[in-house]
Amino acid sequence: MSALGLVGGLLQAVLVVGGAPLLLGMMRQVRARLEGRAGPGIAQPWRDLRKQLRKETITPRGTSEMFRVAPVLMVAMTLVVAVVVPFVGTASALPAVADLIVVVALLAHGSVAIALAGLDTGTAFGGMGASREVTILALVEPTALVAIFALSVRVGSTSLPEIVGSTLDDPARVVSPASLLAAVALAMVIIAETGRLPVDNPSTHLELTMVHEAMVLEYAGPRLALVELGTAMRLTVYLGLLANLFVPWGVATEPGVPALLVGAVAFAVKVGALGAALACAEVFLAKLRLFRVPELLAGSFLLAVLAVTAAYVLG
Amino acid sequence: MNVTGVALVAALVAGFGGGVAGLVVPRTVRPVVVGACVAAAGALATLAGVAAMAGVAWSAALPWLLPLTGVELAVDPLGGVFLAVTGAVAVAAGVYGIGYARGGLDGRAVQAALPVFVASLLLVPAAGSIGTLLVCWELMALASLLLVLAEHGKRAEVASAGRWYAVMTHLGFVAILVGLLVLAGATGDGSFAAVREQARAPETAGLVFVCCLVGFGSKAGVLPLHAWLPRAHPEAPSHVSALMSAAMVNLGVYGILRVGFDLLGGGAPWWWLAVLVLGAASAVYGILQAAVGSDLKRLLGYSTTENMGLVLVGVGAGGMFAASGDAVLAALALTAALLHVVAHAAFKTLLFLAAGSVLHGTGLRDLDAMGGLRPVMPFTTVAFGLGALTASALPPGAAFVSEWVLLQALVHGAGSGTVVASSIVLPVAVGAVALTAGLAVATFVKAFGVGFLARPRSAAAAEAHESPPTMLAGMALAGLACVGLAVLPTVVLPAVAGVAGGVTGSGPAVTGAVTIQLTGVSGTMSPLLLVAALAVATALVAAVVSRRSARRARLWDCGGGPMSARMEYTATSFAEPLQRVFDNVLAPDQDVDVTHYEESRYLVRAVAYRRTLRDRVEHRLYEPVLAAVRGWGRAGRRLADGSVHRYLTYGFATLCGLLVLMVVTR
Amino acid sequence: MVHAIQLLNLAAGALLLTAVLVLWRRELPVIVRVFAVQGVALAALVAALAREEGSAELAAVAVGCLVLRGAVLPWLLRRALAGAGEVQRETRPVINVATSLLAAAALTLLALAVSRPLVDLAPTPASRAVPFAIAVVLIGFLVLVTRRHAVSQLVGFLLMDNGITAVGFLTTSGIGLVVEIGVALDVLLVVLVLQVLTGRMREAFGDTDLDELRELHD
Amino acid sequence: MIGLWRKIRRTGRVAEPAPPAPEAGPAAPALSGSVQIRHVDAGSCNGCEVEIGSAFGPVHDAERYGARLVASPRHADALIVTGPVTRNMAEPLRRTYEAVPRPRVVVAVGDCARNCGVFAGAYGVVGPVSEIVPVDAEVAGCPPRPEAIVAALRGLTGR
């Protein structure tokens, strides 16, 4: 636990919590502009959250504690990830938790909490969303871990600070086929886990096509605000992870206000750029049929295997 | 006689004494006495196991006890791990059994068999010679068979499950017998110490290992010899299911470790490659069947196959690393395997006990008919939820820690051994472990979410009642073990790592009190800090969200409604997407019958959907074999039609044939 | 020098990636476009080799590769596609796409295993990429086996050819200009013949699904 | 894909410049620039739905003022109800209103929703929306112009 890690961790928590809705707003704004709209502005998700936090809480009859605690758990798990992953500085606030496998599993646990809440309502939509969510989660897992394997083979560790540090020391590795293939595979994992197109349509209103939305149809007021904040934070954290695993430039290596500032700005810029790219790509994509999603995930698994192969073959 | 010996002997006395007590004490106090004996035997055995792990070895030879071989006991650290695990499971099962037995399980045979079964479970890892091991193994098989058949009067499936179990466990026994007799053949007394000293040809060693892998593997429920497991485990009374699934299957792993590493002293890489591949296949296949199944106890049985598969992945990887001379990594992989044995024992005990509690309170095993148990069975719901969290290998959980160590071993193994091993086997193993973890999440979200949350889908579920205190106490013990292993695995890790290091001949691969620190390779993880961070974050988030009172409202049913239980997602519908994705592997039989009104074929009167999921391995592998056996039987019947003349003719013909043969060969 | 090796690695990676994409996508025009990209990747690979060895002959071969595999063959394929009628998609491959992707993963690992002795023979940066080229050959074969549409089969054949060419260059660092020209001409001829055949098939059956050919024996 | 990209480039922005903001309604301070809307068709002829679709289309772009259509009344702050309330929809409308967390507003869109329009007195009609749930704002017209709908929504968001 170092000074850089602690300060960086706190800074990251603030950045992720404060920036996640802005990222979502920015992505919606990009999309709106590409569709010829004016768009509500990037602060709109924050306005939504502010309003929802002031509204009344509703507990549907027949739901248990699971329904009530799931949003809190999801946000808490994402928050832990946001603090420990080396986004701003190379050191982590809790190096013993900043392990790539732990982080990915924690984020998955967040979705599991929401899936259980969806089942807890006992509505058809909640069950449907939960079923789809965990199906996708189960199929994503092999890709995620094999891609992690490809990344950590060359570093000899799954510890995030070490991976980021080693990429900083040897930037040329980023353009190796192993690293590029792993990046593409992880990007697909992220798209599937955060429910973006073409796996899930985040702005759908049709229950039958929903995955994530279907699970949270019963939430209202502050709990809904938590769910939405959590979803935005997950997206931010995942994009930040992708950015820092492959382009860790700008990350602070020693404590100090200027270095941390540069690190924070670099993090914001990288995540913003990735988010904008994702939003642009989404304009061109249609949602896949649910039973085409395994095909996409099989493809991403293949890419992850190729990344491993490339790591062995080409070094 | 040291502490290990005293505790073990006391445990055995308690076990066999419990067996006698089960026969003689009156029915009213029988479950209490027997349960107390089982729990005492378990506690003492745990003490013995812990002492043995700490290095207090003990051995004894009692040549007078059995004819031919005598009995030799020897407890070393490796046996100690399994003693401790078995003992701990027995404590929870014994306490639980006091309340559970009141439901018609307090007959003499069952109550006497239970402590004997526990004693035999303790004897197997304590056996010090091949003869003793074989005798104890057979005792264990017979006692467990009796217990599986305990409820044969209530359900017809029990008899069929018992048949499967009896046949397969004895075929496995034959395989072990052949392997170990070949091994013991060269030495005089067959004690482990003598076998270890013996030099033997690689071919002989390979034969022994394959025989033992088949025999012990079938006990561990490894593919394709798993067919008995998801039949027999669910049909047994639930605390016996827990003992079988959490303690008995481990002894299959123990056998493989004992023979492969200890008696044969390592071996060729292909042995361990076979173990790893079988383990990976069992893990994926087992959890896939669990993910699409809807019988709660059968699902848990398949999950046992999965977890034993994961353990064997660790064992296989450890063997491969050891064969390529990397003792540190081998110790790491074995540590992962042993830790997973411990974690699995904890959560599988808890899950089977909770499933038994549901069975006790509702009479249901079918997830499709459950639901809404949270208000009526709060304690059981929490217990099952805790077990499900652990079983799905999500952080923070005991199984997550062991899978993390396993993945570390696989990742760091990339640089060791031959290229084919490291570049092909390890990534595939990682993929298999990951798919297993993902499907385990789906399985246990289904089991917990559909079975316990939501609203009741049958009258039995709605009218459920919580179980008696002794059953709750049994679950609480197992639950405490789960929580303890999740938060502080570092309490048991050094001991387990020491044992693994002793097996591979290196130091412990894992150290650390708060943070798990791998030695020799880089990797740290701290479950305690993770739990602390999660707790702080949860408190923070919960504090930020204002605690205004919530309005209770009816469920959003799209304005229609009221929604009936028939509109809920069931376990079958929950698993349907997965079943469709793995259609090629599972090959389900599906039927959709649509009946129309007479007036028009556009008006649907009813839709009937039927799905049967057969275990494909069973279907493809066992049924042809069974058909062939049946064919021989028919041929045999034709030969043996009851005519005495015919039998005399056979004898005469054989005699003449032999005489001719002698003439020709001389 | 470092840059040439990096380019070589990237080109080898792109070669494999494009092969995978051919297996993945269903739309035939996209498949043809991906195939053109693969031609460019192969040319880049040869160019990287040329740069590393400073060989003018190889540079000429690279240009030839670019023209033939990056432009001429895709153009011919597009023409074949235009003549292939309405069906512009591989509608129902023999095994489903997800399974064939997993099969491709297995084939890649197999290629890695079998090419190890080859690499150990002469462990140069070029020969280390051989497993990728062999994987391309195997994936090409898989396309040939599992796809029904004549044009995608043609692409499968050409994938194999690209893979074999890459193996040739990577193991021997150039098989000589003359041989390459000869092979190129052969391939061109095969494509032309197959294109004529597809045209005929379409005239005869109104489709280019090769499974229809099964009925010829009657 | 390239074709779509070209089309996006060629089309540019289609949203019309925003007209001056109308006076903010009484609900605006509580909602502060964000209104999530659940639409309920209580028996409409679908004329109003077309206009609502148009109000949320690129040209009028109601989303730029902070209004957004959502899938569940639990997520909503406002219901926009169209059509005269038919017998079959009266109870579902009441339940939908109950499902919305407070503070909540109801906008009756179209003449039918305000006073049953041409369907007044029809045997299947219970009455206008205001007879079933309290109405906070009304949009007149048969069908109303999208500009009018957008103006009503801006009255809620205050933007």
Concise synopsis of the structure shown:
Helices cover 70% and strands 1% of the residues of chain A.
Task: Write up this protein.
The complex is a heterotetramer of chains A (315), B (666), C (218) and D (159). Chain A has 315 residues and is mainly α. Chain A has helices spanning 3-34, 44-54, 65-84, 100-121, 124-155, 160-169, 177-193, 212-215, 221-246, 257-283, 293-313, and one strand at residues 58-60. In chain A, α7 packs antiparallel against α11 (293-313). Chain B is mainly α and 666 residues long. Among the domains of chain B are: 272-536, no CATH class; 616-665. Helix content of chain B is 69%, strand content 6%. Chain B contains 24 helices and 8 strands. In chain B, α3 (77-100) packs parallel to α13 and α11 (269-292) packs antiparallel against α12. Chain B is globular, with a radius of gyration of 26 Å. The mean pLDDT of chain B is 88. The radius of gyration of chain C is 18 Å and the shape is globular. Chain C has one domain (2-217). Chain D has 159 residues and is α/β, with parallel strands linked by helices. Helix content of chain D is 33%, strand content 18%. In chain D, the strands form 2 sheets. A 5-stranded parallel β-sheet of chain D has the order 2-1-3-5-7. Chain D has a two-stranded antiparallel sheet with strand order 4-6. At the A-B interface, β1, α3, α4, α5 and α9 of A face α15, α16, β5, α20 and β6 of B. β1 of chain A pairs parallel with β6 (551-553) of chain B, so a sheet runs across the interface.
User: Uncertain runs of chain D with pLDDT below 50, 5 residues or more?
Assistant: none
* Order of the strands making up the biggest sheet of chain B: 3-4-5
Helix and strand string of chain D, N-terminal first? HHEHEEEHEHEEH
Mean pLDDT of chain B, as a whole number? 88
* Residue share in helix of chain B: 55-70%
Strand order of the largest sheet of chain D: 2-1-3-5-7
CATH class of chain D reads Alpha Beta
Number of separate helices of chain B: 24
Topology summary:
The complex is a heterotetramer of chains A (315), B (666), C (218) and D (159).
Chain A: H1 3-34, H2 44-54, E1 58-60, H3 65-84, H4 100-121, H5 124-155, H6 160-169, H7 177-193, H8 212-215, H9 221-246, H10 257-283, H11 293-313
Helix pairs in contact in A: 1-3, 1-9, 1-10, 2-9, 3-4, 3-9, 4-5, 5-7, 5-11, 7-9, 7-11, 9-10
Chain B: H1 3-24, H2 30-53, E1 58-62, E2 71-75, H3 77-100, H4 108-126, H5 130-148, H6 156-185, H7 192-197, H8 202-219, H9 229-235, H10 238-263, H11 269-292, H12 296-323, H13 327-362, H14 378-391, H15 398-412, H16 419-451, H17 459-462, H18 469-487, H19 493-504, E3 510-511, E4 516-518, E5 524-525, H20 527-544, E6 551-553, H21 571-581, H22 583-586, E7 589-596, E8 604-612, H23 616-639, H24 644-665
Antiparallel strand pairs in B: 1-2, 3-4, 4-5, 7-8
Chain D: H1 2-11, H2 28-31, E1 35-41, H3 47-55, E2 67-69, E3 78-82, E4 85-86, H4 87-99, E5 105-109, H5 111-115, E6 125-127, E7 137-139, H6 146-157
Parallel strand pairs in D: 1-2, 1-3, 3-5, 5-7
Antiparallel strand pairs in D: 4-6
Helix pairs in contact in D: 3-6
